[in-house]
Structures are given as structure tokens and as C-alpha cells.
From TrEMBL:
Stated family: Belongs to the binding-protein-dependent transport system permease family.
Name listed for the protein in its UniProt record: sn-glycerol-3-phosphate transport system permease protein UgpA
InterPro entries cross-referenced by the UniProt entry: MetI-like, MetI-like_sf, UgpAE/MalFG_permease
Residue span, ABC transmembrane type-1 domain: 70-282
PANTHER family in the record: BLL4140 PROTEIN, SN-GLYCEROL-3-PHOSPHATE TRANSPORT SYSTEM PERMEASE PROTEIN UGPA
GO cellular component: plasma membrane
The keyword Transport belongs to this UniProt entry's keyword annotation: yes
Main location: membrane
Keywords: Cell inner membrane, Cell membrane, Membrane, Transmembrane, Transmembrane helix, Transport
Pfam families assigned to the protein according to its UniProt record, in alphabetical order: BPD_transp_1
Organism: Haloarcula sebkhae
GO biological process, one term: transmembrane transport
Length: 294
């Protein structure tokens, strides 16, 4: 290959990458750098920017309300990951086992994921509304008083169920694809050996599709920490009494309701670092436990 052809290929690659780089610089890298810088200021619309050093981070360390929000966020994200993975794995296995109507079942499971998060939040709000919800009367018939507008644990559970319902379809897409790539000979061997369906799922299929499961754990963790914001905003607004005040919503309130932009930037930096460390830990665990063949 001549020098001119190499130069042309590199130039073409650079031109193709340019739009992505520009968008990343404008909407990702610059805001990140700006947030880190702003976290060292007391920034507000009224008083302007005043350099305060690490004061915002000291406020975070000494804030019991923020620490409570951290605990709620970690618990919420963990429940989302476990709930989504468990439900999606069961549904994917059932779809994998049938031979007729797979497409119909897949569409039925996946369609909630196609909804924008805000729309999904509104749909579930009306489904589980304490007064007019479709399922409210059936739940109350079991002796449960449904009033999650004022009951913190109930609100947490309702938002959690909505978040799981929204994300299950995304997981089913990858899990069914991974199960479809499992060699048929393994399934036939397991059936001949008298292995039950449950044991076949847990001892045969799960180890083989573990790389896909690791990927989904990471994506679901990001979803639990960041992409559930619209549901919290539309369904509970962080209440009642802060029971659903996850970190991303707490950050939003600090910036756009209380206009403490420096303090909100410090919260965003801490959240970014914490989730980044969590992702690193998950990648390390994936290298240890995921099966990549060979």
C-alpha cells in the first residue's frame, strides 16, 4: 500500500470520526471538565461564582441527608439489577424453550423498553395510582392499604417495580440471543442425563452466557443509578419524606430547584467517581467469573 493510500485512508477515517468527536467534546468532555471546575465554587444565579475550594465536598461529607440519599440509591440500584436480571432470565428461558409464537412473546415483553422513560413512568403511575389505579383494588382486596403517595416504603417498591418493568425487555433481547447460541448438543445431552429445566438453566446455560450477563449487570447498574430519573420525577418527586430521593434526582433538585450549581457539580463528580469505581470492580469480577471459552 502506497503512502498516498495510507494518508487517504487515515484522512477518510478522521473525517468519519469527526462528527462523533465534535458531539463528544461538546456534550460529554467539556461538560465533565466544567462540572469538575465548578465543584470548587459557590455558584449561583444571584451571587455569581465564588471560589471556595473543597467546601462543597466537606458539605457533602457532613450532610446526613446526602448520605441517606447515597444509601437509598445503592439499595435501589442493587434491587433494580437483581430484579431485572432474575425476571429477564426466567422470561428468556421460557421463550427459548417454546417453538411456536416466539415472536409474539418477544414483542409482548420488549414493548415497555420501547417506551421513553417518562412515558413509562406515566403509564405505571396510572396503573398503580392509589385512587384510580387498575391494580389498586385487587391489591387492597388482599388486605394491603395502598397509599404510596404518603408511605415511603410503598413508594420505593412501586418505583422499583416500574423501573424493573421498563428494563426487562432490554435484557430479554440479549439473553434470548445468547441462549439461541448455546449448542443444541448441550441441551440434548442434558435432557438425556435427566437434568431438570431449572438445573439446566442454572448449571448449563448461565455459565455459557455469563459474558452477556456481565454486560447486562453493568448496563443495569448504569440504568439504576441514572436512567430511572424520569420515573422518580413523575411518580414521587423524591418523596414521600425522601424515600425515593436517589442521587441523580437529588442532584437535579440541588441544581435546578435550589440553584446551587457548585454544590450540584460536586455531587455529580462524586456520583461519577463512585459509579466509575463500581464499573471497574464489575469488570474485574467479570474477568474472574465469566466464561469466555477456551
Amino acid at each position: 500500500m502506497s503512502t498516498r493510500e495510507v494518508f487517504t485512508d487515515r484522512l477518510q477515517a478522521g473525517v468519519l470520526l469527526l462528527p462523533t468527536m465534535v458531539v463528544s467534546m461538546v456534550f460529554l468532555y467539556y461538560p465533565t471538565v466544567r462540572a469538575v471546575g465548578l465543584s470548587f465554587y459557590r455558584a449561583s444565579l444571584a451571587r455569581g461564582d465564588v471560589f471556595v475550594g473543597l467546601e462543597n465536598y466537606r458539605r457533602l461529607a457532613g450532610s446526613s441527608e446526602y448520605l441517606r440519599s447515597v444509601l437509598i440509591s445503592v439499595l435501589f440500584a442493587a434491587c433494580v439489577v437483581v430484579g431485572v436480571m432474575a425476571v429477564a432470565l426466567c422470561i428468556s428461558f421460557l421463550i427459548h424453550e417454546i417453538n411456536v409464537g416466539k415472536g409474539v412473546y418477544l414483542v409482548a415483553v420488549i414493548w415497555p423498553y420501547a417506551l421513553p422513560p417518562a412515558v413509562a413512568g406515566l403509564v405505571f403511575l396510572f396503573i398503580a395510582h392509589p385512587n384510580i389505579g387498575i391494580f389498586t383494588s385487587y391489591i387492597e382486596a388482599l388486605g394491603v392499604d395502598v397509599n404510596w403517595f404518603s408511605n415511603g416504603p410503598q413508594a420505593f417498591v412501586v418505583v422499583l417495580i416500574a423501573a424493573v418493568w421498563k428494563q426487562v425487555g432490554y435484557n430479554v433481547i440479549f439473553m434470548t440471543a445468547a441462549l439461541g447460541n448455546v449448542p443444541e448438543s448441550l441441551t440434548e445431552t442434558a435432557e438425556l442425563d435427566g437434568v431438570s429445566r431449572t438445573q439446566r438453566l442454572l448449571r448449563v446455560y448461565v455459565p455459557i452466557i455469563s459474558p452477556t450477563l456481565v454486560f447486562l449487570v453493568i448496563m443495569n447498574t448504569i440504568y439504576g443509578f441514572f436512567r430511572t430519573f424520569p420515573m422518580v420525577d413523575l411518580m414521587t418527586k423524591g418523596g414521600p419524606a425522601g424515600a425515593t430521593n436517589i442521587l441523580i434526582y437529588d442532584l437535579y433538585r440541588t441544581a435546578f430547584q435550589f440553584y446551587e450549581f457548585g454544590f450540584a457539580s460536586a455531587k455529580s463528580v462524586v456520583l461519577f467517581i463512585a459509579v466509575g469505581l463500581l464499573m471497574y470492580g464489575q469488570f474485574r469480577l467479570s474477568d474472574k467469573y465469566a466464561y469466555y471459552g477456551g
